[in-house]
Amino acid sequence: MAAVAEATTGWWLLLVLSAAELAVAHHPQPPNIVLLLMDDMGWGDLGVNGEPSRETPNLDRMAAEGMLFPNFYSANPLCSPSRAALLTGRLPIRNGFYTSSAHARNAYTPQEIVGGIPDSEHLLPELLKEAGYTSKIVGKWHLGHRPQFHPLRHGFDEWFGSPNCHFGPYDNRAKPNIPVYRDWEMVGRFYEEFPINLKTGEANLTQLYLQEALDFIERQHTRQRPFFLYWAIDATHAPVYASRPFLGTSQRGRYGDAIREIDDSVGKILSHLRGLGLEKNTLVFFTSDNGAALISAPEQGGSNGPFLCGKQTTFEGGMREPAIAWWPGHIAAGQGINFCPGQNVSGVTTHTQEEHTELPLIFHLGRDPGERFPLSFASAEYQDVLDRTTQVVRQHQEALVPGQPQLNVCNQAVMNWAPPGCEKLGKCLTPPESVPEKCSWPH
Ligand SMILES: *[C@@H]1O[C@H](CO)[C@@H](O)[C@H](O)[C@H]1NC(C)=O
Ligand SMILES: *[C@@H]1O[C@H](CO)[C@@H](O)[C@H](O)[C@H]1NC(C)=O
C-alpha cells in the first residue's frame, strides 16, 4: 500500500525541526513555517476526504499540490492539551496538560483555570527563535491566560487573538467577556469590540485573522527574516461563525459557512505566499486540534467522516485529524492520498490498482458486502458469473453510441457563485472572469 502516512504531533514537530536544521545547513535562509491549526474541524470536513458537498476547493487543491495525511493524529481529543502537545512535542501527561481528577478527558483551560503552560516546557517558537525566526500567533492560545502563561513569554514575538474560547456573551459581572489581545495588551473583548452575533452567526474574526496573517507574512518578507506563523483560528468551534459574505452560502449550514470562509482564507494565504515568491521556501501545514464536536452537530459541528464518535473521545473520530503538508518544490504533488484508509486487501486496495480487466475481481455482495474476499478464480461460481457478465458487457459495447464528453473543460466562473435563489437572500457571489481550461484531475 503506497505511502500510508502515519504521524503524530511529536513526529510533526520532529519534521519541522529537522526541516529547519536541514535548511540552515544547506540554504541561505531556513524555510518559513506556517501552521494552520483548525478548531474542532473533523477529518470528514474536507472534500478531499470525501465530504460530499465539496466546499473546500482550496484545501483540496492544497492536498493535490502537496501531501495528504489520512492517518494523522492529535495527542488529545480536546483543545488545550492537544495544542500544548503540538507546541511542545510532548504528550499532555508530560507537559502538564491533564488532570488527575475524574472526567480527565474534559480538562482544558477555561477562564477559571489557574494553571497553564509551565516555564520548563520548550515551545516550538522558543526553539525557532534560536534559529533566527520571528514567530506570531494569530487566534486562540488556550495554554493559560494568567500573565506568566502569556504567549510572548513562551517564544512568540507577536499575538493577535484570545487566550480562551470565544464563549459568551457574559455579563461582565459574574463573568468577564474574553479579551482579545494585540501582543501584550488587550484591545477589546468578544461580544463588545469584537462582536459575534449568536443569532445570525455573523462575526468578522476570520477576516481579521486572515489580515493579520497576510500582514505578518509580508512584513517578514520585507525584513528578509525566516518566520513561523501559527494561525490558530476558531470559527469552527461552537458558537461557529462566519462573516457576512460567507453566511448562508454553504449546503452544510452555519458550520459549513465557517469552513468555506476558512477554505477561502487558506487559498488567500497560499496565493499571498506565491505572490511574494515565498512558496518554495515555506512549509505550510494544515490540521485540526481534535475531531469534530458531535454534541454541537449538525448546525454547529462538523463531520468525522466514517470514524466513530468525536471530540472528547479517544475513538478515531476524536483524534484522527485532517492534515495536509504543502511546500512546492520540496514536497511532490499528490502524495499520500490513500482512498481506502484503514483497508488493506491484497490486490484490491493497492495504490497501483492492479490491472484486473482480464481476470476481473468478483465479489458476492450478499455474502461479502465489504468486498474483502474475491471469489476464487478457479471456482465454478466465478466462471459462471464471469461468463454471464461478459455476455452483458459485449451486448452493451455493440449497442453503444458515445455522447459528447462533458467533463473535459473547467471554468472557475461556473462554480456555485450564484445558485438559483441567491438574489433573494443577498448571498450571491460574483464569479471571476470566465476562463475555460482543461480540467485537471489530480486525484
Ligand atoms: C463586519 O464587518 C462589516 C463591514 O465592515 C460590518 O458591516 C458588520 O457589521 C461587521 N459585523 C460584525 C458582526 O462585526
Ligand atoms: C497490506 O497488505 C500487504 C499484503 O497483503 C502487506 O504487505 C502490507 O504490509 C499491508 N500494509 C498494511 C499497512 O497493513
UniProtKB/TrEMBL annotation:
<keyword id="KW-0732">Signal</keyword>
<comment type="subunit">
    <text>Homodimer.</text>
</comment>
<keyword id="KW-0106">Calcium</keyword>
<dbReference type="Pfam" id="PF00884">
    <property type="entry name" value="Sulfatase"/>
</dbReference>
<dbReference type="InterPro" id="IPR050738">
    <property type="entry name" value="Sulfatase"/>
</dbReference>
<keyword id="KW-1015">Disulfide bond</keyword>
<comment type="similarity">
    <text>Belongs to the sulfatase family.</text>
</comment>
<keyword id="KW-0325">Glycoprotein</keyword>
<dbReference type="GO" id="GO:0046872">
    <property type="term" value="F:metal ion binding"/>
</dbReference>
<keyword id="KW-0378">Hydrolase</keyword>
<keyword id="KW-0479">Metal-binding</keyword>
<dbReference type="GO" id="GO:0043890">
    <property type="term" value="F:N-acetylgalactosamine-6-sulfatase activity"/>
</dbReference>
<feature type="signal peptide">
    <location>
        <begin position="1"/>
        <end position="25"/>
    </location>
</feature>
<dbReference type="InterPro" id="IPR000917">
    <property type="entry name" value="Sulfatase_N"/>
</dbReference>
<dbReference type="InterPro" id="IPR024607">
    <property type="entry name" value="Sulfatase_CS"/>
</dbReference>
<dbReference type="InterPro" id="IPR017850">
    <property type="entry name" value="Alkaline_phosphatase_core_sf"/>
</dbReference>
<keyword id="KW-0458">Lysosome</keyword>
<dbReference type="GO" id="GO:0004065">
    <property type="term" value="F:arylsulfatase activity"/>
</dbReference>
<dbReference type="GO" id="GO:0005764">
    <property type="term" value="C:lysosome"/>
</dbReference>
<protein>
    <recommendedName>
        <fullName>N-acetylgalactosamine-6-sulfatase</fullName>
        <ecNumber>3.1.6.4</ecNumber>
    </recommendedName>
</protein>
<feature type="domain" description="Sulfatase N-terminal">
    <location>
        <begin position="31"/>
        <end position="351"/>
    </location>
</feature>
